[in-house]
Design brief:
- With about 160 residues, this protein is mainly β.
- The protein contains no helices and 10 strands.
- The strands form 2 sheets. Strands 1, 2, 4, 7, 9 and 10 form a 6-stranded antiparallel beta sheet that branches. It has a 4-stranded antiparallel beta sheet with strand order 3-8-5-6, with no helix packed on it.
Length: about 160
């Protein structure tokens, strides 16, 4: 077996080094723009990030940490759903519930978090975003509540 030692590796003709399993590029976007949602239809939450993969067979690791508060004024259980989208395609979904008790004012702050290894199969710009909704009315969601920061990080990984 031979061993190759190098001090510096430079791509030929200005291209990138394509080594399977290595990160080719990283893109991050943050949002502090509050968005309120009180309905049962998925709606964009003001957190998006776009990447243009250099190779069509690359994977994209999507990492999301999105803060929201959840408030209900009923004694029934309510569920907040947050989903991760690639364009118009859902690639992951998370449910957070609040179980109401005897009183009619319940509040909860929490995070929607995603770590998804996606295969967009393109070299075109690809936009990821989150959307939120409730399973029933009589509740409210506040993404980036009080202008707290939410983050989406995209990493292209060579295959």
């Amino acid at each position: 077996m031979s061993t190759l030692f190098v001090d510096n590796l430079k791509p030929n003709l200005g291209t990138v080094v394509h080594s399977p399993g290595h990160i080719i590029q990283v893109v991050q976007n943050d949002s502090t723009t509050q968005f309120s949602q009180g309905g049962t239809t998925f709606t964009d939450t003001n957190l998006t990030c776009a990447i243009t993969p250099k190779y069509s067979n690359s994977k994209v690791l999507v990492m999301v940490k999105q803060y929201f508060t959840f408030r209900t004024t009923t004694t029934a259980e309510r569920v907040a759903l947050t989903r991760l989208m690639r364009g118009s395609t859902e690639i992951a979904q998370q449910a957070n519930n609040i179980i109401a008790g005897m009183s009619t004012d319940h509040r909860r702050g929490t995070f929607a978090t995603f770590d998804v290894l996606d295969s967009p199969s393109t070299t075109n710009e690809t936009t990821y975003k989150t959307q939120g909704r409730l399973t029933d009315s009589s509740a409210d969601l506040y993404y980036q509540h009080d202008n707290s920061i939410s983050t989406m990080l995209l990493m292209e990984i060579a295959q």
